[in-house]
Amino acid sequence: MAAIDVTRRQITTTETPWVRRTLIGIALLFLALFLALPLAAVFTEALRKGLDAYLEALKEPDAWAAIRLTLITAAIAVPLNLVFGVCAAWCIAKYEFRGKAFLTTLVDLPFSVSPVVAGLIYVLVFGANGWFGPWLAEHNVKIIFAIPGIVLATVFVTFPFIARELIPLMQAQGNEEEQAAIVLGATGWQTFWHVTLPNIKWGLLYGVILCNARAMGEFGAVSVVSGHIRGQTNTMPLHVEILYNEYQSVAAFAVASLLALLALVTLAIKSWVEWRHERERKAAADLPLERPAAAT
């Protein structure tokens, strides 16, 4: 074990000091220009006219409606994707069946399809002139330009996040522990709750964090299906766009600052999850192996 650690240290210190400093400097410069500076600009513009103007922009009824709709959409989309992600990862990682490669491809579909195209798909299916539009209008069911359409579009663009975090993790772990639990008499639910879930909990939490962040920040697909009805179907990103187009820059950046805070909180939680996972992994690796007692 010590030899492996020495080898790792040697591998990570083969570059000359000036090369390491140059690479670190480039990375820090990139982060400063493309991450830190834009974030600083958002908060600077939001507070440009003082704290009172900032709070007044957030108290505005349309802003509250956008915040509320964003939270409702995320509260519906994330649990749905949680169930789908666990089920899809379980099927792909634990079973061999015909069509497995096709299912894996479908999971990755939202990564390759533009969110705007995804929104247009739902308009084609549920819009007034879409496949089910006349039937929905006849039964007074509104999907497009209403909350159901926003939720559907958000679910579509976010459903790969949890599944994609769990699939490689569950494939690497294999299914030996689940098979052992079943042999010992555990039911399927007991096996999942007491064996599978503890092994995937950090990956699952990480996927939920990313899914929630994307759900709250989604713009393209939601923009197509929302109708931009102020105070009714505008989420926070759409409300920011409307305010900015109306030259209400302070109000626009005030709402945008909430999304920026969400990004920072997401980053902090993500770092904490990674730290806890690494801590548990090291603790498990440092456990001494139990030796069988000597025969007397």
What are the defining features of this structure?
78% helix, disordered N terminus, 0% strand, 296 residues, mainly alpha, 15 helices
Q: Helices, strands, pairings?
A:
Layout lengths: L1 H11 L4 H30 L4 H9 L1 H34 L5 H8 L1 H4 L2 H12 L6 H6 L8 H12 L1 H14 L2 H8 L4 H30 L2 H7 L9 H10 L3 H37 L11
Question: In a few lines, what is going on in this structure?
Answer:
The protein has helices at 2-12, 17-46, 51-59, 61-94, 100-107, 109-112, 115-126, 133-138, 147-158, 160-173, 176-183, 188-217, 220-226, 236-245, 249-285. By secondary structure, it is mainly alpha-helical. The two termini are 32 Å apart.
What does this structure look like?
- The relative contact order is 0.12.
- The two termini are 32 Å apart.
- Helix 9 (147-158) crosses helix 12 (188-217) and helix 10 runs antiparallel to helix 12 (188-217).
- This protein has helices at residues 2-12, 17-46, 51-59, 61-94, 100-107, 109-112, 115-126, 133-138, 147-158, 160-173, 176-183, 188-217, 220-226, 236-245, 249-285.
- Helices cover 78% and strands 0% of the residues.
- The longest helix has 37 residues, at 249-285.
- By secondary structure, the chain is mainly alpha-helical.
- It contains 15 helices and no strands.
